[in-house]
């Protein structure tokens, strides 16, 4: 196996195998891997880079799981544990709509007691307070937890949340599927198999989702590729993933003592390999909160075609030491993309292009 052989396959639009992706991930020539990814990306999206105007709402940090990488979670009774009430959620949704957001991204810890009715009510509340906002909410891990607490089949939980206003799912909670690493990172979390099973059900119910990978901690390069291979296989079946989001591990204030997050070269190469290997997932998203704004901009030359988003309020990455700002403005995102020599395209949550009046926020 050699770089020119792999480049020829990419040129011909052929699917790469796991060994080839592994080779690229270990390849010392970052720019060569990046160039291939940029080629694959250009074929799919030309010079266009998507971004969206959104707001994150983290409704609780109470969580029954104790994932070693997570600096956000708290136990019931901790002084800085919180759960937003519906009025507060309504206020944040209304503020998002007033600020020109098209989407709210709503996730939380696995709350020990809240009943399914709370989540249904929360969705209805958001819909009422911010009519027109697309509600992207709840990871596969949260859905599985709601089903356990309610003692209901997952299909019923998905149907009820959909009826209450759920429109798509973010990709969180996937972490790394490999059991070896997962057992050290998050032994109480649903398994990788279950995460994929839940997402399969979500897609079959007609909802779209994203997929994430938390990387740069205890996993091996082969486990990283194995994670992407499982996403690609599910996507071949369902076609329900819209975007892949690679989340570099933020290493402050977590329980993974002494484990340092990935450097810039590793991050860029991982995004490039994702673009090349995940040939059936349309969008590779850079989440600037975890990458840092400048590296997120550079990643646009390494196969990335989507920047999330204005965000407004972020806790999961910042509690773990992310040094990025809390929010970016729409203008800031547009400028960042233009300065990278690309064409900014504001999208909605289903990747349809939005046209705004020039003076809109
Ligand atoms: O599920 C937790 C990860 C995720 C850390 O789908 C950490 O559009 C790095 O999933 N270092 C939440 N990562 C964020 C997420 C997300 C973000 C933006 C867009 C989308 C999308 C999804 O953050 C968690 C977990 O995998 N995480 N702790 C940490 N120390």
UniProtKB/TrEMBL annotation:
GO biological process: menaquinone biosynthetic process
Keyword flag Phosphoprotein: no
GO molecular function: 4 iron, 4 sulfur cluster binding; 7,8-didemethyl-8-hydroxy-5-deazariboflavin synthase activity; aminodeoxyfutalosine synthase activity; iron ion binding
Binding residues for S-adenosyl-L-methionine: 69, 175
Catalysis: reaction(s): 3-[(1-carboxyvinyl)-oxy]benzoate + S-adenosyl-L-methionine + H2O = 6-amino-6-deoxyfutalosine + hydrogencarbonate + L-methionine + H(+)
Top enzyme class: transferase
Cofactor binding summary note: Binds 1 [4Fe-4S] cluster. The cluster is coordinated with 3 cysteines and an exchangeable S-adenosyl-L-methionine.
EC number: 2.5.1.120
Recorded superkingdom: Bacteria
Pathway: Quinol/quinone metabolism; menaquinone biosynthesis
Keyword field: 4Fe-4S, Iron, Iron-sulfur, Menaquinone biosynthesis, Metal-binding, S-adenosyl-L-methionine, Transferase
Names of required cofactors: [4Fe-4S] cluster
Domain (Radical SAM core): residue spans on this chain: 49-278
InterPro entries in alphabetical order: Aldolase_TIM, CofH/MnqC-like_C, F420, FO_synthase_su2, MqnE, rSAM, rSAM_sf
Record's function text: Radical SAM enzyme that catalyzes the addition of the adenosyl radical to the double bond of 3-[(1-carboxyvinyl)oxy]benzoate, leading to aminodeoxyfutalosine (AFL), a key intermediate in the formation of menaquinone (MK, vitamin K2) from chorismate.
Protein name per UniProt: Aminodeoxyfutalosine synthase
């Amino acid at each position: 196996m050699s770089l020119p052989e792999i480049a020829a396959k990419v040129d011909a639009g052929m699917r790469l195998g796991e060994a080839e992706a592994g080779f690229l991930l270990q390849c010392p020539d970052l720019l060569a891997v990046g160039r291939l990814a940029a080629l694959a990306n250009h074929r799919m999206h030309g010079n266009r880079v998507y971004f969206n105007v959104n707001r994150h709402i983290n409704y609780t940090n109470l969580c029954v799981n104790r994932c070693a990488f997570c600096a956000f979670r708290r136990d019931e009774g901790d002084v800085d544990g919180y759960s937003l009430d519906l009025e507060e959620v309504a206020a944040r949704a209304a503020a998002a709509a007033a600020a020109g957001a098209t989407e709210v991204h709503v996730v939380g810890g696995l709350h020990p007691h809240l009943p399914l009715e709370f989540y249904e009510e929360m969705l209805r509340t958001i819909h009422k307070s911010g009519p027109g906002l697309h509600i992207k909410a709840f990871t596969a891990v949260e859905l599985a937890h709601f089903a356990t607490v309610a003692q209901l089949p997952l299909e019923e939980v998905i149907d009820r949340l959909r009826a209450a206003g759920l429109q798509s799912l973010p990709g969180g909670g996937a972490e790394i599927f490999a059991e070896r690493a997962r057992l050290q990172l998050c032994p109480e979390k649903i398994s990788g198999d279950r995460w994929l099973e839940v997402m399969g059900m979500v897609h079959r119910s007609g909802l779209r989702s994203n997929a994430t990978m938390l990387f740069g901690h205890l996993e091996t390069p082969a486990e990283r590729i194995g994670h992407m291979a499982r996403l690609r296989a599910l996507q071949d079946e369902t076609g329900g993933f819209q975007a892949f989001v690679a989340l570099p591990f933020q290493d402050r204030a977590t329980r993974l003592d002494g484990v340092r997050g990935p450097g810039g070269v590793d991050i860029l190469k991982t995004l490039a390999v994702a673009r090349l290997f995940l040939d059936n997932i349309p969008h590779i998203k850079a989440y600037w909160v975890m990458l840092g704004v400048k590296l997120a901009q550079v990643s646009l030359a390494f196969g990335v075609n989507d920047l999330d988003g204005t965000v407004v309020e972020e806790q999961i990455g910042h509690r773990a030491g992310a040094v990025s700002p809390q929010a970016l403005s729409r203008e800031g995102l547009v400028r960042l993309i233009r300065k990278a020599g690309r064409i900014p395209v504001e999208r909605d949550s289903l990747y349809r292009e939005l046209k705004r009046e020039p003076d809109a926020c």
